[in-house]
Structures are given as C-alpha cells and as structure tokens.
Request: fold
Amino acid sequence: MFCFGALLLWVGAVWTGTARAETSPQPIAVVVNQSVDITTLSPAQLRMIFAGRTQFWPDGSRIRVFVLPPKNDTHQLFCRHLLNIYPYQLERIWQRVVYSGQGEAPKIIDTAQAMQDAIGKTPGAIGYLSAPGQINKDIRMITVGEPL
Reply:
C-alpha cells in the first residue's frame, strides 16, 4: 500500500511539474521615459536600479523607479523572472535603503495605464509593463540583457 501511495504521489508531482513547465509567463517589458539615454541594461544593472543601489543614470540624472503593488501578478513576474528575487525580498531591500537613509523607495502605481502615464511625465523614470501592445509616445521599451 505504501509503494502505491508513493507512486501516486510521484506521478502527481511529475504531472504538476509538466503542467507548470508548459505555461510560460507573460512577457514583461522594461520601459523608461524618453529622456533616458540608454537602450540596454544588464540583469545586474536592472537589479541594482530596482534595489535602490544605483540612483543615477550615466548622464548624472536621477533615476525615478516606479513599480506596481506587491500583490500584482505583473509585479510578481517582474521580480521573479527579471530581478531573480521574490517580491518580499525586494520590499525588504527597499526598507533597508530607506531606513538607512541611503535612498528612497520606488513609487507604487496602481494600474498599468497609470504606470505608463507616470513614467511618461517623469524625466529619468523606469518601470515595467506586462506585454504592452501599445505604449504612449513619452516612453519606450529597453532591452534587458548583455549589450551586443
């Protein structure tokens, strides 16, 4: 009986893992204000920006970080797949940066449309959207990966 139960548990785990592997996460686009003069960020640079460790763009202008609420699906995918950390870990990093006086927490924006509007109106802004079909003229997507 024990062997049959173990076999059943194993088959269930394999089937669940297969089902998860087939569902690919929705693409997340990193977007910046038109004033930002970069086209590519490495994954490490992106993590440093969203962790508050890099606070200025190469031209010296201040980086303004915008994020969706922690429970938002897009935020969770962004943290896990692009930053390679869990959302709660990112929040703890922000708390340390703020309480140590080394920086400020990102501005939390409620909706994707509000995110586009805020980034479009804020020079030096960076944020993310889930697979944007159409973005406004004041923002643009950047590539996350090693420069070519």
About this structure: The radius of gyration is 19 Å. Confidence is low (pLDDT under 50) at residues 1-24. The beta strands are 28-33, 40-41, 64-67, 107-108, 125-130, 139-144. The domain at 26-144 is CATH 3.40.190.10 (D-Maltodextrin-Binding Protein; domain 2).
